[in-house]
């Protein structure tokens, strides 16, 4: 599988509703940095109750 953003091999792949997408480590890190700079990651953590608080 190739990275969704470039032609490198995908290091990480996720699948949802039958659609599988892969990204290389570089683009994965870029996307995680982008999420960290937004409220999206905090909202996701809250939705998933990642830290275990109820």
Overview of this structure, please?
The chain has 54 residues and is α+β, with helices and mostly antiparallel strands. The protein is built from 2 helices and 2 strands, in the order E-E-H-H. It has helices spanning 25-36, 40-48, and strands at 12-16, 19-23. A two-stranded antiparallel sheet has the order 1-2. Strand 1 (12-16) and strand 2 form a beta hairpin. It is flat, with a radius of gyration of 13 Å. The relative contact order is 0.15. The model has no long low-confidence stretch (mean pLDDT 86). Pfam families: DUF6757. InterPro entries: DUF6757.
Quick summary of this structure?
With 54 residues, this protein is α+β, with helices and mostly antiparallel strands. The chain is built from two helices and two strands; from the N terminus they run E-E-H-H. The protein has helices at 25-36, 40-48; strands at residues 12-16, 19-23.
Strand content: 15-25%
Tell me the span between the first and last alpha carbons. 38 Å
Structural class: alpha+beta
Helix content: 25-40%
The number of helical runs is: 2
| Uncertain stretches of 5 or more adjacent residues | none
Order of helices and strands: EEHH
Would you report the number of β strands? 2
Q: Indicate the radius of gyration in whole angstroms.
A: 13 Å
- Global mean pLDDT: 86
Biggest beta sheet summary? 2 strands, antiparallel
Tell the overall outline: flat
- Order the strands across the largest sheet as they lie in space: 1-2
Pfam family, one: DUF6757
InterPro entries: DUF6757
